[in-house]
Amino acid sequence: MYKELISKQKIFFNLGKTLSYDTRIKYLKKLKEEIVNNEAEIEDALYKDLGKSSGESYMTEIGPVLKELNFQIKHLKKFMKPKKVGSPLALFPAKSYIYPEPLGTVLIISPWNYPFLLLLDPLIGAIAAGNTVIAKPSEFSTATTKITQKILQNVFEDEYVTVVEGEVYETTKLLEERFDYIFFTGSTNVGKIIMNAASKHLTPVTLELGGKSPAVIFNDADIKLAAKRIAFGKLINAGQTCIAPDYILIDKTKKEEFITYYKMYIEEFYTDTPLENDLYPKIISKKHFDRLISLYKDEDILFGGKYNDVKIEPTLLDIKDVNVKIMQEEIFGPILPILTFEKVNEVFEYLSKEEKPLAFYAFTRNKEIKKRILTTTSSGGLIFNDTLMHFANNNLPFGGVGYSGMGKYHGIDTFKTFSHYKAVVDRKTWLDINIRYQPITEKKKRI
Ligand code: NAD
């Protein structure tokens, strides 16, 4: 069903149409211009899909996309440049170098939670690296797909970049085809399906997945600031963020203080009637909404818990038993369970039994504890005394480990992801030393 489309892209690629620096830079600049011209429409679409305010849409989607575009445009020449390396004596005379080449036709599959950012962020790197792209956005963020598709159609020919819309059936069909790379952002369960399909053609993959990212608050932490930064990270996009702090593990003696400040910041950020606040986003769909309600309806609610037909209040839960459902799956909504510990060792014991998370947030100023976390735990990213902000630094690689994903991107890493680094040796012919040739006699063996 998608054979013709993919073969058109492959022909375009094989003709070398995506290869030159001039082409890549021209299209990246055109893409930037088109995004800037359509900013208002993108914001409207994000409001329709997720109830995101224009400020939040710019800060978390349009802004980072433009930042990534600027970064790739600025550094492209350097990224494309072959890197000279030394050659051993046995190769003399020769030049050795590493040549970055594009992979070919790549598939990008994206989720609904940051529908503009998570489709375009990898796409920018794929174009910078000289590939053609088939992009499959989520079926849940239809308004954003529409404007993104319009933008991409205005910039690229179909043979260069195409958006394919679809649900599970269409994606399954797409995955039957042979791509040169698959970049997937979504849930861990679907990640397994993607990797399985990719293995049929030995297609390499990046899997940007999810999981339960803990926020651990130790007794030396600045509790007020921790509450503020956790409220920021948990409530942006109403908790529908892959790196949102999923739950809190806090020193028992600090629990009440944390709750007081967390409530205070909810009101400061979203007033005491967040459901009526236009700056507070909604849940993407009825299906996702119902799942969230079922996750917390039987739990002990410390704060919030109310909902209307599209939004759920910022909610705090008191959790005594880690075997409850909300502690077994990624929450992906504005509900924050609080668990307590009495001894620091309990934290490490608990986390050692959990899957490696996409992000680990640790609130402490204690050097020993920091060192222990750094050296004995594993997570996609580790942030001391803040949440989310590592995503905003494109000098850092972004990605998961274990069940939270494989591969990394942002900045130079996106370019690397979509490139093959070819080892090249250019042997000269003006001299040929006989030593390495047969017959390989005893005399030659250690030379
Ligand atoms: P999802 O896995 O349900 O869907 C992601 C994409 O896969 C969509 O385009 C969807 O159409 C497609 N898909 C769904 N089921 C499929 C199937 N059976 N076969 C083939 N394709 C299928 O994820 P979602 O609900 O859109 O997004 C939420 C998840 O994504 C969360 O787990 C979140 O943590 C994760 N996420 C990760 C990152 C990251 O950067 N690591 C970023 C955002 C979201």
How would you explain this protein's 3D organization?
Helix content is 40%, strand content 17%. It is an alpha/beta fold and 447 residues long. It has 2 domains: 1-209 and 404-423, Aldehyde Dehydrogenase, Chain A, domain 1, CATH 3.40.605; 214-392, Aldehyde Dehydrogenase, Chain A, domain 2. The strands form 3 sheets. It has a 7-stranded mixed sheet with strand order 10-11-12-9-8-13-14, sandwiched between helices. A 6-stranded mixed sheet has the order 5-4-3-6-7-15, with helices on both faces. A 3-stranded antiparallel sheet has the order 1-2-16. Helix 8 (188-199) links the parallel strand 6 (181-185) and strand 7 (205-208). Helix 3 crosses helix 4 (54-80). The protein is globular. The termini are far apart. The model has no long low-confidence stretch (mean pLDDT 97). The site of nicotinamide-adenine-dinucleotide has 27 residues, from helix 7 and helix 8. The active site is at residues 208, 242.
- Helix % is 40-55%
DSSP strand count = 16
State the low-pLDDT regions, or none: none
What structural category characterises the helix and strand content?
Answer: alpha/beta
Q: β content, as a range?
A: 15-25%
CATH C-level category of the largest domain: Alpha Beta
Nearest-angstrom radius of gyration?
Answer: 25 Å
Q: Let me know the CATH homologous superfamily of the largest domain.
A: Aldehyde Dehydrogenase, Chain A, domain 1
Distance between the termini: 59 Å
Give the ligands present.
nicotinamide-adenine-dinucleotide
Organism: Haploplasma axanthum (Acholeplasma axanthum)
Active site: 208, 242
Protein name: Aldehyde dehydrogenase
Family: Belongs to the aldehyde dehydrogenase family.
